[in-house]
């Protein structure tokens, strides 16, 4: 049966690049992208619909119009913005998910992708090589909503046999689409500022190690998970996925190898530091490696090289 995909939240950092990969794979005519506002650009053969994932009847009409076999739900409010509007973050991140889960059951949608995050871990989770299963006491409303969302995904799978799959994304680094309101966004801002002004005042402290992943790896890993036969999927909450871990000081040193005059400084206080301090420094992704042979390809040197080369020519 031909795959037809609806992506909700397609204008975001991950959605915009995942949509491109899905169009290449399934044909632009079989990928319907959607978001709450028009995209910046849309090619002739690309399909886009305005949708508010919190409007369940509009969402049902969208699903009935296109009859998708797969739905990717990427609409979410991230960690830093969520702390400014916690009630809105909970509403969007949880009720948006519930609408998609219930409509998938009602309309028989075969496969769902929903992103979780390493934000589900908290100060009492193991800091290094954080396990798939461990204490999870998230301090951000984003992490709380993602942890609750994971429990919903596992519940809907076991109770209704819904084929929903999920990845706990680390911080995602990319150059094509500006990120929106994340704590890990420094790892993108630093490249833009280094090229524009030769300097960057980092909002996280020098030794704040965080798990990160390059966008190419994130997109490939997501599609590999969605391609995996259902019987091989052993995790129905959300898979730990790791790329690499580094600190602001380490990425600054890597940038200086290409931009020797780059100067890094650190702000005295930023509320995002407390969020970052509650997250793991590195992730154990052995379940992903076992279930679908996950393997990241980008390290800090290749990320730095690719980011600078592309930002120089495309931004
Ligand atoms: C954020 N980029 O910073 C997201 C991500 C692990 C971090 O979930 O909120």
TrEMBL record:
Question: Would you say which domain of life the source belongs to?
Answer: Bacteria
Domain NAD-dependent epimerase/dehydratase as annotated: residue spans: 5-233
The protein here is known as NAD-dependent epimerase
Q: Which organism does this sequence originate in?
A: Sphingobacterium haloxyli
Recorded hits in Pfam families, A to Z, give: Epimerase
Matching InterPro entries, A to Z? Epimerase_deHydtase, NAD(P)-bd_dom_sf, NAD(P)_epim/dehydratase
MF (Gene Ontology): L-threonine 3-dehydrogenase activity
Its BP terms in the Gene Ontology are: L-threonine catabolic process
Family to which this protein belongs: Belongs to the NAD(P)-dependent epimerase/dehydratase family.
